[in-house]
Please model this.
Amino acid sequence: MNIAIFADVHGRILLALKLCARWQQETGEALDLILQAGDMGIYPSMDRLDSATLRYAQREPTELGFMQDFRKRDDASPVAATFAALDCPFVFVRGNHEDQDYLDRLERAASGPTFAVDAYGRLLCLKTGEPLVVTGRDGSSLSVLGIGRIGPTSERQRVIKDTHIQPAETAKLGRVKGHTDVLLTHDAPPRGEMGIPAMRAVLDRMQPRYHFYGHIGGPLAEGTDVNGTTHFCKLADLEWHEAGKVVRAGSMAILRWQGSAASTLEIIDAPWFRAYTAHTWRHV
Model:
């Protein structure tokens, strides 16, 4: 099975979808799953924006992509056309730049590990600590465990904000058992006073084959976790590189998965990928 992976997209959801559709066109292969590691930019209205998103949106309107393109269904829109080319789930975890109240309401009303957040019913938020199993066209299966939001610093432990992992979510992580193939998180593994302590326990106990995350910015980073088993991949944000306004390198990966012993991870850096610029991306 083929899985596309992104980290922080900050509203550029349609861009991620268009890149996935283009990958299918270029390779002649189909995607079975899209994973996204938080900071989707799920803001249904302007009055719900946090200060950082509002500030960035003043110079980069794509930060408002969710409310512009996904709040109302339009079957004649580029969004509908792109979804039609992608017959696969789009699964994400919460970041710290989302409307948490909006997501809380949807999550409370939903059974199962995921819930739809958009008018098309295609963008699926994965609940923290609830395993998801996806079966590909080739019959292979992939288990995914998500950890959304971020961890508070130790100085703020007594003040748990809605952007911080909640006590009930931490408790759920303590109860989850078995193995997972992929750990999908927004925050990075614990480092000093930063990160989510329960994430370290999950990495050590469940020994995932891959860990995908974002949040901390900067370029692509890959390596082996201190547990000695997990390959970590911190993708770059899906945004424009200031030099030339092209899509930032290291912001899209493809996992070809046939089981933990037969998988490859590719970072997309093809000429067609670099054709998606701040000025052309809606028309390429």
